[in-house]
Amino acid sequence: MRRSLALLLPMLLALSAQANDPPPSKPIKPASAKEESSSPASASAKEERKPSSKESKDSKESAKEAAIRAKEALAADELAARIAERLSVIRKEKDEAAARSVPRPVVRPSYAPAVRKPESVKTKNDHGTNSAAAAGGQAASHANIHWSYKGEGGPLNWGKLNAANAKCDIGERQSPIDIRDGIRVDLDPIAFDYKPSRFSVIDNGHTIQVNIGAGNYINVMGINYELVQFHFHKPSEERVNGKSFEMVAHLVHKDADGKLAVVAVLIERGKSHSLVQQVWNNLPLEKNDPVQALTTMDMSDILPVKRDYYTYMGSLTTPPCSEGVLWLVMKEPVEISPDQLAIFSRLYPMNARPIQKNSGRLIKESN
């Protein structure tokens, strides 16, 4: 019995030990890549790798944008360079065009050209003669000489404007003068032979001048002088014993030799004068543009009733101031109206040469 118990006890211990041991486990297989990726550790690693991939993407996009910006900047620089180049070309073309439009300076020779002698001009001067014939051929035409009654071209400078005007400065028998201390003698009357004639009126820039048709004469001391023209001065150039008059009309005559005789008709304010009005009716609208009147003029109408006169030798009262002119100044003045005087004053307020020295010349007057 004891032997059975002894045999049974080890068997019970073996069974008990077997019951207490855990069941045998299966062999552990190595994890696959898929299982690793699905495992929490793999997920964590994957999550850790995702941010680095996003950063790489952002980095790529930044690089791409930088490249685009660099390309755009390069394109802008190229465009600016092209614009600058084009503007330079346009500016150059503009400068060349401006240079072509500016006239080139005229290079003058360092030497003075030879002085050309003035040609003979046949224009009538204020005393109605061709300059070559006036005062024995001494007078040069003043049509092209810039002289006037004031300023730089005034009477004090006439002799300096042209060599032909030398007599204006150095002449000894210049006109006009203050007529005084005349010798009373029985002078032969002036024989006037005037008739109605055609005429024209011109404003020559110095006065109003009336050119008369041929056929009107005076005879003085047996010499015939033909009337060429007459013109006006304001105030009168001549004075009588210091007295000046409102105006004077100079009737210019010329003999066969070209010598001059001037009849001066003094004018004062008073009643209207028909011949003066006839002149004013034909005033030209432009200077040096003569008006041919449609009527005739009788120069006898401008003469005073009394024909007494003063006489002396003098000169032209305008350049070239040639001497050898016979002056015949009527003692009795004629009248014009204030309105007629105002018309001339609007054109020529003053066109009279100043009084010249008598220089001891002889003045005769009729009784």
UniProtKB/TrEMBL annotation:
UniProt key word Cell membrane: no
Compositional bias (Basic and acidic residues) spans?
45-69, 116-127
Q: Which UniProt keywords apply?
A: Lyase, Metal-binding, Signal, Zinc
EC number(s) of the enzyme? 4.2.1.1
Say which enzyme class the record assigns.
Answer: lyase
**Source superkingdom:** Bacteria
Reaction(s) the record says it catalyses: hydrogencarbonate + H(+) = CO2 + H2O
Residues of the region (Disordered) are 16-69, 109-137
* Domain Alpha-carbonic anhydrase: from-to ranges: 145-367
- The leader peptide range reads 1-19
Q: Which Gene3D superfamilies does the record match to this protein?
A: Alpha carbonic anhydrase
InterPro entries membership: Alpha_CA_prokaryot-like, CA_dom, CA_dom_sf, Carbonic_anhydrase_a-class
Q: Does the keyword Zinc apply?
A: yes
Which family does the entry's similarity section mention? Belongs to the alpha-carbonic anhydrase family.
Q: Which PANTHER family match?
A: CARBONIC ANHYDRASE
Name of the protein this chain belongs to = carbonic anhydrase
